[in-house]
Amino acid sequence: MAQKLKIIPLGGLNEIGKNMTALEYGKDMIVVDCGIGFPEDDMYGIDSVIPDVTYLAKNQNKLRGYFITHGHEDHIGALPYVLQAVNAPVHGTPLTNGLIRLKLEEHGLLESVKIVTHKPGDTVKAGCFTVEFIHVNHSIADAVCFCIHTPVGKIIMTGDFKIDPTAQEGMMDLARLGQLGKEGVLALLCDSTNVERTGYTPSESTVAESLDRQFKGCDQRIIVTTFASNMHRIQAILQTAHRYGRKVAVTGRSMENILKVATELNYLRVPENTIVDINQIKTLPKNKIVIVSTGSQGENMSALYRMAFSGHRQVEIQTGDRIIISASAIPGNEKAISRIINELYRKGADVVYEKSEGLHVSGHACQEELKIVHALTKPRYFIPVHGEQRHLQIHGKLAKQMGLSPKNVIIADLGQVIECTAKTCKLNGTVPAGKILVDGAGVGDVGSVVLRDRKHLAQDGMIVVVVNLSAEDGSVLSGPDFITRGFIYVKESDDLMEALKMVAINSLEYCQKRNIYDYATIKATIKNDLSGFLYKNTKRNPMILPVITEI
């Protein structure tokens, strides 16, 4: 039998973020992107979510390399964790690799990973695959899409993109996509993030014009928060500040890191004598300062959050400060952002944000741009990626509107294997896939049981019941004593605590009368009796932990 190409999504389907796709043919495999996802609201204590790479580890001898489209966290964030389990060369463009090096250095992995730098137009041989780097526009510089030349045909993976004719680094290379379309494209895997939006995504240059309007005539201090990775936006802020005679100070670790990498690689042109240390701002007049900050998503430890809640060492929000939030909310972050905006207003600041002033444009293609890519590449098969189920389904409908046969549109799920020959493409089988949770330094040690317990604790609290029993005859020597957390305030609930004590004593007496000395059974009896009593009287289900000590 002839070999088949396997396309295996390990992340980025039916979710936003955590992008990762493996391509396998015979004895060779490559991986495109390796990103993190953001934890959901009920994932208490979880810092980030990474793809399950069990299948990669099992086939490590086949892996020829990781190919990264751009430097956003949802495309590079999982590399420090995944590379520890499955090491292979990492291929990317200069800025992308600069950000990857920074990340690996923080985890002490830089010396153990081979990082190879390429530019748009380059082709890289990786086993039986040849990967072609093609320039695209996005909200970070140096973004590329890939045409992967395989033994069964060409696979185009767009990564995140939009079409911006006025982009600083030049428009996306549509000519090359058109040329590939004429040669014949077997399958297109295309970004679906903005497929619900009609029309075209506005150019980044429109944000520069909006920033200019906010700076013009302002005689107060200006604080701008945006995505640290959006180099074009930071460049616009620097140029606008310089034009109005203002100095720029940067605060927030990720912003400082990005500025360092981008300046070293000449992706940012910093006007002379514009950047000042954050500690110098108190010596400058208000109308001569711009502070560029992290925190556009309401993150608890970000610079803007600390400013809003008076926890920032160098910056305290003052009446009249103009605060520009030049970013849109990632789904799920709306409440956190609203909380910060409300607190800034409470402190007397003038807050300007995207909804009212056009201070942000997306980095993802809207429907008309997606249609252009479909029309140019003319794929035989279409696989929508980078989106939740509604995004994938809507993108599938758009492909059908472009003339593709419904049977040639493949909507897959994580871990489903898409098998391709030169003339066919279909779902066939699954591999292990899903979410690995990162909690502090622990990777994968928090599973569904631990999360369920955390959710239980968050909703109803906990009661610990401590009893000391005699080692000789099992009689109660002391207790039961109760410790509660997140359930009630003990000092104001004497009647309930006395009632709980009586329930526990009755449970112990029940066990003694029936000569039950097995501690597991005694604990289960106490737990069941207390649980039933509490739900009947309080309609709550706290976690109950009986602790029995033997004296």
How would you describe the overall organization of this protein?
The chain is α/β, with parallel strands linked by helices and 551 residues long. Helices cover 32% and strands 25% of the residues. The protein is built from 16 helices and 25 strands. The strands form five sheets. Strands 7-6-5-3-2-1-19-20 form an eight-stranded mixed sheet. It has a six-stranded mixed sheet with strand order 8-9-10-11-12-18. Strands 14-15-13-16-17 form a five-stranded parallel sheet, sandwiched between helices. Helix 4 (94-106) links the parallel strand 6 and strand 7. Helix 4 (94-106) packs across helix 8 (253-264) and helix 5 crosses helix 12.
